[in-house]
Please model this.
Amino acid sequence: MDTIYEFTLPKGYMDSAGELHRRGHMRLATAGDEISATRDPRVLSNPSYLTIVILSKVVTDLEGMDAVTATTIEQLFTADLAYLQDMYQRINDIEPPTMEVVCPDCGRIFEVPLNFTQEG
Model:
């Protein structure tokens, strides 16, 4: 099973010297990553910071950088942040489960997401 995935940022992280860093690696998240991120004081004071903290835990390296920190993730261009968020969801399989169904009127087969938390 793969646990580490390579990526190339669409824009790249620009460091203080003006150098771009685009290639890196992301590892699968653990339950501990997500639990510790929700307890982070920055997240407790601003819940939207959760994404930043989690990505700073799972992005293991960025070419030419000594370390990837929350500050590094904060300074990414929005296109790069969106790219990493999408990658995180894909590699951690956070997509809702789906079920193949058949339309009783036209007979067309399609997939619908299953939601086990909503009543209805």
Remarks:
- The chain has one domain: 4-95.
- The CA atoms of residues 97 and 114 lie 6 Å apart.
- The chain has five helices and five strands.
- The chain has a mean pLDDT of 90.
